[in-house]
Design brief:
heterodimer; A: alpha/beta; six-stranded mixed beta sheet; 10 strands
Amino acid sequence: MPATAPAKPRRPEEPAGPLLRVDSLHVRFGSQEVLRDISIDLEPGQTLVVLGESGCGKTVLLKSMIGLIRPTEGEVQFEGRSLSGLNDRSLAHLRTRYGFVFQGAALFDSLTILDNVAFPLREHTRIPDAEIRSIVGGLLDEVGLPRSVLTKKPVQLSGGMRKRAGLARALALDPQLMLYDEPTTGLDPIMSDVINELILRVHERPHVTSVVVTHDMHTARKVADRVIMLYPVFRLRPDEPQIVFDGTVEELDGSRDPRIRQFVEGRAGARLMELREEQARDHGIPAESPTDTETDTHEGEPDA
Amino acid sequence: MASHSSASSATGATGWFANQVANLGQFAMDWVTGVGGVAVFAIQTVGWIFARRQRRDVLLPNFYQIGVMSLPVVALTGLFIGMVLAVQSYAQFKALGLETRLGSVINLSLVRELGPVLAATMLAGRVGSAMAAELGTMRVTEQIDALESMGANPIYYLVVPRFLGCLILIPSLTVMADFMGVLGGYFYSHVLLDIDYHHYWANSREYVDVFDFLLGIFKTLFFGAAIALVSCHHGFHCEPGAEGVGRAATNAFVHSFVLILILDLFLGIWLNNVHDFFRPEGPRRLL
């Protein structure tokens, strides 16, 4: 089910082919397998949303895409160059073409918002400080933050403001590939929608490709032109692929795969049974049988 | 791991013995991996000192925290240790009728051992655990990942300034500890124990020379480097959550302190040999 994305004009120097290729990626932490044989081709201009329940490896996949986590097997290629083959200097240089928005914004506590947003500019350019100030001001305008926050420390801002400041910092070097890790987690519905709007607005910049990792179906419906769903490895049979869905949002909504339906509709299903069994084990009581509505649907056939 | 699990399945005395061997092997492997990790970390840190010019705006706040803010506590520790040395030694020396020799004992102990080790211990307690907690929090809240994602090197930005701060400023802190210790010892001996100040200082001058002072200062360079590397390494490899940060801070102090003592012993042995090389006639007798 390869999805089609609205094609954006390529930069003249961009080679043909996917912007980012994840090729047979396996990630293990000790004996724990987190990602199993993940392959994704990300075309320039796409907005890919990676869905999945907590602990399924979404964030690990996102961090692997920028080389923050080294694969156990397989590789990630950016414009055909394998990240594993790059030395530290080349990898650092390549990362200037990425923008990463972290789940908790990950602003530097000890710096003001101005210094935070200016950080990539001061690190990688020789732009004079006065000009950096004006660029930072423009970035804050773009994410809808008042200039009064420039002198504030991250701890003085609300969660939504911090997230927008994190987005402004990620945009500072005019990145080609934006990576968002749970951009709406922990925010109220209104602020979540503001963030979704900002993701769309950023995507309107020329040459921007985006990957959004989330478990928020509103975000997926609003921003995605391609959706991938990951399933936790420990819930899979040894021969099952970890990507249980790859397609458009409409196809996702039409899917009959019980694992996908359970996620899209937000039903606990047999997970409740697991919870009861655990409680029963703790208290030495025999577990109750699941009701019909709670029966696990995980053994069903995947969507064709 | 494989040997561990197979050992676990064995039963009886053989199984117990196999388990112990497996645990010992695992412990040895963890220890070697840990030491190797710190060594690689140290090499990377030293590499980054020379790879790129250091930024003044990054260095100065760290130097302020490590040096200026540690000065009062180091001075206070030195002052009291000088006085305590006078209290503890006085009775024995008085019994021998050698109370004017107190100056040499107090001041020699201070500049060779107690000043450097106490300054390092205070630095490990005040700065080392704070560095581990700060870097640990940055690891847990993904700030270190954020640095890397922006193409900046976290060792260059976070470890090198702290390493240089500890390395460059610990000698000054030691000088302060020595100075306050000498003052404390003199104050207690002269003002409270009424020892003649002329003989007190004359004996000090005779038995404590600049070589003793410099040996003490030289040792602190190793202590400073050890504190910074061990503490930053613990912060960088902090486990998630508040518990992980707390454990990183505690381990940073405990491991730094143990390392200071081990380094002190071996540096002491080595520096005595150096001393003997330059002064083959041996040390002057105190008594």
